[in-house]
Structures are given as C-alpha cells and as structure tokens.
Amino acid sequence: MSLRTNQNRACQSIKADVSLCFSQTYCLLQIVMLSFANYVNQVRGILESLPPPEVIPMGMDRSAVTDRILDQLQK
C-alpha cells in the first residue's frame, strides 16, 4: 500500500472517531437538557401550588411580621 492510501485510511478513521465523539456529546447534552427541563417543570409545579403571598406592610413590628410569616408557612 502506498503512503497516500495509509494517510487516507488514518484520516477516515479520525473522522469516524470525531463524528462518534460529537454524536455521543450531542446525546449526553440532550439528556442533560431533558433533566434540567424536568427539574424546572418540577420547581414550577411546586411554586404554582403555593398560595399567593400575603402583603406585609412595612410599618409592622418584627414579632407581628414573624407571626404572619409563620402563619403563611403553616397554610
């Protein structure tokens, strides 16, 4: 075999390896993105299930604010 033929085969082998690497990376990226999308949807579902926050006026004293926050958390 000529040197040129060996170079072409080596180049094709490298191209195949690079192509496989890109496809594996793409598959892994899809899995990661799906996992992230599932996480975001779970967090969104939890946040949407919570009752709307109660408005606490700025002038309330600290203990009253603490009591209202605890009441909200218990609901």
Overall description:
With 75 residues, the chain is mainly α. It has one domain (3-74). Helix content is 80%, strand content 0%. The protein is built from 2 helices and no strands. It has helices spanning 3-49, 62-74. The longest helix has 47 residues, at 3-49. The protein is rod-shaped and about 90 Å long. The protein starts with a helix and ends with a helix. The model has no long low-confidence stretch (mean pLDDT 77).
Uncertain regions: pLDDT < 50 for 5+ in a row?
Answer: none
Reading the helices and strands in chain order gives HH
Count of DSSP helices?
2
Please tell me what the overall shape is.
rod-shaped
Give the total of domains: 1
Instruction: Quote the distance from N terminus to C terminus.
Output: 80 Å
Strand content: under 5%
Helical residue percent band = over 70%
- What's the count of strands? 0
Q: What's the Cα radius of gyration?
A: 29 Å
Global structural class: mainly alpha
Q: Outline the biggest β-sheet.
A: none
What is the mean predicted local confidence, pLDDT?
Answer: 77
Q: What descriptors fit this protein?
A:
about 80 residues, mainly alpha
